[in-house]
Design brief:
The structure is a single chain. Helix 9 packs parallel to helix 10 and helix 10 packs parallel to helix 11. This protein has 791 residues and is of the alpha+beta class. The protein folds into 3 domains: 152 residues, C2 domain (Immunoglobulin-like, Sandwich), CATH 2.60.40.150; 277 residues, Endonuclease Chain A (Endonuclease, Chain A, 2-Layer Sandwich); 200 residues, no CATH class. The chain contains 17 helices and 35 strands. The radius of gyration is 27 Å and the shape is globular. The chain has a 19-stranded mixed beta sheet that branches. Strands 6-3-10-9 form a 4-stranded antiparallel beta sheet. The two termini are 35 Å apart.
């Protein structure tokens, strides 16, 4: 039964069961309310403050998902907000529900709600006063709102989004896979010669070449990190680079600071660091790094991820944030040699997922054992196999993506550093986000053919928003200003996709409102649902389209532990939601294809031979995990990347995972860049371009699969799908076969689950647990851990 609500002289029907997919954008202005009831009428409240009346705020919901929250207006029965929200939506809902609530010191109390059905939304702008009714149908005042719903099909498909930092042209961009890649050009599947970038080597050269400043933000910065190793020395081009090649990162930064270069470092302060040991429970080295630079000319600040408290109700979130939420940005900003015919120096910024810490130096070969006494000597990292040490191995291989930007957008990375420094580097002098030419008239913007937009997940608890002209792009939640442009950029990119989407990410969970029985889980960002709807859109149109998603075999750590099992369970629900939605579209068009032919989840693994195990390694303890892994000589490659490529045209590269922690804007602090080349986009050509994004993506496919093939140039095609599936299946057989000493051809395998034609996920025959573990692949919900930690 519907419930009647009055809007002026118009009766509006809101049918609870009349639902549809609302996919597009809602522009909502919450203006004001009037004649609210006084809910703060308890004797104790009035005794403290006789003027204490309702402290109201408004939330808006689609189904079980909250899509916005206004600030709190204290002590007013006629509050005025005038707050504007532009919200990407991808929800199954009967309409939008506004809930008016009173924020008390300990908890919040419902006042009433206003409902607007989807049919009315589709008729055009909804504007004006609406009666607020409580659960009993009693009037509780009125709310004035404006709602404009725009369907995704009529929104222009654009790579740039309206956010705090605009898209800027004229940049040079270099893309990196792994800390170290091929030294010489390689021929890729399209027949072209391609020179992969080597990230740590370029970072080293940038630091050595800096003359004015080196600014670093990090989740973890390890002073003992060796950026130059082995044959890297042959790629150094100046005497200064050769002179500094033997220094570790800490020594290198000290050496540069002694020459007058200003070195500033902001690293996340993990709450347990210093309490147990200098590395902390998470091994981030923050206290150790701070102590290393204490009393030197390098200015190093430990910055916790704190949330300011308005009252007692914020205490829990404040404590949770201080204990677990992180500053997850990874940036280096330096002044650098000119990249064009210009005598002035330029600004260079590195942005992405690659931390300056232990275990991250890796190559596309992703060795397990053979590099432990060479390239990885002194840099052993293994956080996913309890009890395995550097005496035994294997190490934990690391797949990551990063990029370098020179040009106008590099200044936005600079400004972000200043915004954070001025908020959190307590006791330090202020930094000002300068523009080209303002630093002794000695820095130029450089020129290039890349368009770059700098993106963030961040709140005004962690940064000063210095560009008042762009503050209208920020979201307000609990009176905090939030930049959530990374999530919006992902959604915009997915909606712009015409042929394929390629993603590498450490986590993949979201759209919890579509998980069925788990709808109350607070993981509401819409990226997975958007991908599923994009595939459905193409199925209905009869167009070929594929989405490839590369994730780790399991999250980092012991997969049998409660937290990791819960993450696996949420991830499985995300996958199943997507597959079931695709299956519905296939059934609707009369196709008997399996949904896994449109959405492909992969992971990366490696297996070596006896010849790869150095004789210097000790024999593991009998019965230990290390002994088992020595026998099988196999282990997962940890995918830490945060990459999205659309149509070989646009790439998003940064620090943000596809989970609520990274994309909400109010949890972990993140940054990313959205990049594309002028003249090398599907939008400009009407076909897949052959620019640098395409070369980078093809090379990635080849590195992961271990083979080349013409089909890789057309990843949306059935031929490419078949090629990828066959290679992944062979790689899986090579990985899991017992007693083999043949190693593997490549690394990519299909994620070990079975998907039926209805989109239901079940156990892959013979693999209830991850190889060499007793940890179920399906995961399990604990009902004990705070879900904000695992989503």
């Amino acid at each position: 039964m519907g419930k009647e609500e009055k809007s002026g002289s118009v009766d509006v029907q809101f049918e609870e069961d009349d639902v549809r997919i609302l996919r597009g954008e809602m522009e909502i202005v919450v203006r004001e309310a009037r004649d609210l009831p006084d809910t703060d009428n308890m004797f104790f409240s009035k005794l403290i403050n006789s003027k204490d009346v309702t402290d109201s705020f408004v939330t808006a919901h689609l189904g079980n998902c909250r899509i916005l929250m206004t600030s709190v207006k204290d002590n007013s029965l006629n509050p005025v907000w005038n707050e504007r929200f532009v919200v990407p939506v991808c929800h199954l809902a009967s309409g939008v529900v506004f809930k008016i609530r009173d924020k008390d010191h300990i908890f919040s109390e419902d006042i009433g709600e206003v409902r607007i059905g989807w049919r009315e939304l589709e008729e055009g702008e909804v504007e004006g006063w609406r009666p607020i009714t409580d659960r009993s149908g009693r009037n509780q005042g009125e709310l004035c709102v404006s709602v404009v719903y725009r369907d995704a099909m009529v929104i222009p498909k654009e790579y740039a989004i309206d956010s705090y930092n605009s898209m800027k042209g004229g940049n040079d961009v270099r893309l990196y896979s792994c800390a170290r890649n091929a030294r010489f050009p390689v021929q890729i599947s399209n027949g072209e010669s391609y020179q992969p970038g080597s990230c740590y080597l370029d970072m080293f050269k940038a630091i050595v070449g800096a003359e004015k400043f080196i600014y670093i933000t990090g989740w973890s910065v390890w002073t003992a990190l060796q950026l130059v190793r082995g044959e890297d020395i042959d790629d150094l081009t100046t005497d200064q680079e050769v002179e500094h090649a033997g220094l570790n990162l800490g020594e290198l930064l000290l050496a540069r600071a002694k020459t007058g270069v200003r070195v500033l470092i902001m690293i996340w302060s993990e709450i347990s660091s210093g309490a147990f040991n200098e590395k902390g429970m998470m091994g981030t080295h923050d206290q150790e790094t701070f102590n290393f630079f204490r009393g030197t000319s390098v200015e190093c600040f430990l910055v916790p991820r704190e949330i300011g408290m308005n009252d007692l109700t914020d205490m829990a979130s404040h404590q949770l944030a201080s204990a677990s939420y992180t500053h997850h940005q990874k940036t280096i900003i330096v002044d650098a040699e000119p990249t064009q015919d210009d005598e002035r120096r330029t600004l260079m910024s590195f942005v992405g997922g690659l931390d300056l810490t232990d275990g991250r130096y890796d190559t596309p070969e992703h060795p397990l054992f053979w590099s432990m006494t060479g390239m990885h000597s002194g840099d052993f990292y293994q956080n996913s196999a309890p009890g395995v040490t550097e005496e035994w191995g294997p190490r934990q291989p690391w797949q990551d993506i990063h990029c370098r930007v020179v040009g106008p957008a590099a200044w936005d990375v600079w400004a972000n550093f200043c915004d954070r420094w001025n908020k959190q580097a307590r006791g330090a002098g202020p930094l000002y986000p300068l523009r080209a030419g303002e630093l002794n008239d000695a820095i130029s913007d450089g020129t290039g053919n890349w368009n770059v937009q700098f993106l963030r997940s961040i709140t005004n608890d962690s940064a000063v928003f210095s560009n008042q002209m762009r503050e209208y792009t920020l979201t307000v939640k609990k009176s905090r200003k939030i930049d959530e442009s990374i999530a919006k950029a992902y959604i915009s990119a997915i909606r712009a996709a015409e042929k394929f989407i390629y993603i590498e990410n450490q986590y993949f969970l979201g759209s919890a409102y579509a998980w069925g029985s788990d709808q109350e889980i607070n993981c509401h960002h819409t990226v997975p649902a958007e991908i599923a709807e994009k595939i459905c859109e193409k199925i209905f149109a009869g167009d070929e389209f594929r989405a490839y998603i590369v994730i780790p075999l399991h999250p980092e750590g012991d997969p049998a532990t409660m937290a990791l099992q819960e993450i696996l369970a949420w991830q499985r629900r995300t996958m199943e939601m997507m597959y079931r939605r695709i299956a519905q579209a296939l059934e609707a068009v009369g196709s008997d294809s399996n949904p896994s032919n449109y959405l492909v989840f992969m992971c990366l693994v490696n297996r070596e031979t006896s010849e790869h195990v150095p004789e210097e390694l000790e024999d593991p303890l009998p019965g230990s995990r290390a002994e088992l892994l020595r026998e099988t000589k196999r282990f997962m490659i940890y995918v830490h990347s945060k990459l999205c490529i659309v149509d070989d045209s646009l790439a998003i590269i940064g620090s943000a995972n596809i989970n609520q922690r990274s994309l909400a804007g109010s949890r972990d602090t993140e940054c990313a860049v959205s990049v594309h080349q002028d003249g090398y986009t599907y939008q400009s050509l009407g076909e897949l371009p052959a620019g640098e994004v395409a070369s980078f993506r093809i090379r990635l496919f080849e590195e992961h699969l271990g083979v080349q093939g013409d089909a890789l140039t057309q990843p949306y095609s059935g031929d490419c799908l078949k090629f990828v599936q066959q290679v992944c299946q062979q790689n899986w057989q090579d990985y899991v076969v017992e007693g083999s000493d043949d190693g593997m051809m490549g690394h990519a395998v299909l994620y070990p689950i079975d998907i039926d034609q209805q989109g239901n996920i079940s156990e892959l025959d013979g693999f209830a647990c991850f190889p060499d573990t007793s940890a179920p692949i399906a995961g399990a919900v604990s009902n004990m851990l705070p879900m904000k930690l695992t989503t």
